[in-house]
Every structure is written in C-alpha cells, then in structure tokens.
Amino acid sequence: MYDHLRAALQATLSVRQQQQAAAQQNVSNAQATITGATQALAAATASLQSSQSAQANAQAAVNAALATQQQRQQAVDQAQSAVSSWLAQEPPLTIGGDSFAAGERTTARAGLRAGDGDPIPRPRPNPEHATWLVTYNQLKAALAGAQSALSAAQSVTAQAQASLGSANAAVSSAQAVVAARTQDVAVANAALRAAQGAVQAAATAVAEVQGQVAALDARAALLVAEPLDRPGIVAAADAEQAEVSRLRGVRAQARQSRFAAVGSRVTLLAAHDQSVAGLPSVATALKGWSDATLPDPATVGVLVDQVVASAAAQRATAPRHDDIAGLVAQLDAAIARLGTSVAAAVADTNAKRAALDAARDDVETVNGEAP
Fold first, then answer.
1. Which terminus of the chain has fewer Cβ atoms in its 10 Å neighbourhood, N or C?
2. Which residue has the higher pLDDT, 90 or 287?
3. What is the mean pLDDT of residues 240-261?
4. Per the domain annotation, does 229 fall within a domain?
5. What DSSP character marks residue 257?
6. CATH code for position 60
C-alpha cells in the first residue's frame, strides 16, 4: 500500500516538476518577446521622430513660402498703386491748337475751314507726354515682373503645403505604429507577469507534493521503527482512518460539483462556439482595409484569424480543453490594437482637416489682397 501511494505521489511530483519547467520556459519566451517588442518600439519611435523632424522642416518651408508670397503680394500692390498713380498724372498727348489727351479725338473747330475766319492752329506732340510714357512703360513692366514673382511664390507655397500634408500623414502613420508597438510591449509584459505567476504556482504545487511524500515516508518509518512504538502507530492509524472518512465526503462532494461543472461546461462551450462563428466576417472586413497610411486594421484582422484558428484547433480535441481565457486575452489585445488605430485615424483626419482649413484661409487671404 505504501509503495503504491508513494509511486502515485512520485508520478504527481514528476508532472508538477514538468509543469514548473514549462512555466519557466514560458517566462524565458515572454522575456524574449518583450526584448523583440521593445526593439520594435524603439525602431518605431525613431521613425516617428524622423517623421516629426520632416514635418517640422515642411512646416518651416510653408511658413517661409507664405512669408515670401506675402512680400510678393505687397510688391504687386505697390507696383499697381504706382501704375495707377502715374496714370492719373498723364499729360496731354499734344500741345498747341486744339490739344487733346491720349485716347481722345481732336476737336479742332469742326465748323471752320481755311479762309473762313481765323486759321485752325495745328497741334504738335507734347514732349512731356513722351517722357511720361517712358516712365509709365517702366512701371507696367515692373508690375508684370511683380505679378510673375507672385505667381511663382504661390506655386512654391502650394508645393510646400502639399509636402506638409504628406509629412502630416507620415507622422500620423508613424504615431499609429508607435501606439501598436506600445500595445505589443504591454501585451508582452502581461504575458510575462502571467508566466511568472504560473512559475510561482508550479513551485508551490511541487512543494506541496514533496511535503506529501515526506509525510508518507515519515508514517512508513514509524511502522518499521525499532523498538516498535505501539501508541504512535495507533495514533497514526486513527489519524489515517479519520482522514479517509473525511476524504469520502470530499470525494462525494467533488463528484456532485464535477457533474454540475460538466453541464455548465457544455453550455459555456456552445456559447463560445457561437461567438467564434461571428469572428471570420469581422476578420475579412478588417483585412479589406486599403488605407496605406494606417495599415494596422489589416494586421488586427490577421490576429482575429489567429484567434479563430486557435479556437478551431481546440474544438477538434477530444475531450475538449479550450483555453477560453487565453482566447479572450488574444481577442482583447486585437481589440485594443484596433482602438489604437481608430484613435490614430481620428488624429490623422483632424490634422488633415486643420491643414485644409489653413490652406483655405491662406487662399482667402491672398485673394483678399489681390488688386
């Protein structure tokens, strides 16, 4: 009897020790995962910093382009004002006789003919008008040059704003990647904590079985001790009989609990299968995401596929040993990652809307300042 009990305890101890070793291996694996996730986060952070630097440079270029455009607009306004002012000072085109200004017909006494009275004096070119015309042409040429420079400045501004829009999109995408990698690190840390807890639980289980083996060995030693300790043996026998009686009640209660648990398990597994059945369509929709600036939804779709595949593999076992808690944790991680992508998409939309509003304001400002 002793050998049978001890062999059973040794078998249990061997299983517990294997579980302890597996738990320790899970800790090592989780630590390696954390290392990889941390490195990926560092790379994503570096990429984000590079994108933010490019964004700052693009914003500086837009600011410089807008400043130049404003200067060119001021130059156009000044040139236009100078042309208008000079045009108002235009002298008569001719002098003498019935002089007329540029663009007007001569109104020399139409009713008079030579010999009908006073002779009609003949007009002659006004030298002041010729001098004025030279300056006028110079001012018009300056205005045309200023307008050309303004057009070039507007083109540079448009290009700079387009580059800024691309930089903003790159920053939003990099922020989404950083958020996803941060989530990966958090999930890896949670897995490490779970693995460390499993190691502690396994160590406790090993110590418990070792204690049972030691107690059994002590009782066996009592039976073969010399000289024979009759009172001790009687006390040990009474204790074991009491333990057997107690364990009979525990066993009966355990059977009832097991029967109830089987029924609950069937109901739970059926609900679990029904929930998993709805996931493939969700994964397909996520993998159909086509926005290159926010690729994470497609990745989340792959994670959901992994949950479905794990559930299918567990459902195929007989008897079933579904790790529902583990599947729920995987799905929670996928949902958290999708939430990060949604937040990044909202931030990207807000940034683009702000850039569009700023560009519209700039255009309205330029149009308002145009002559």
1. N
2. 90
3. 86
4. no
5. H
6. 1.10.287.620
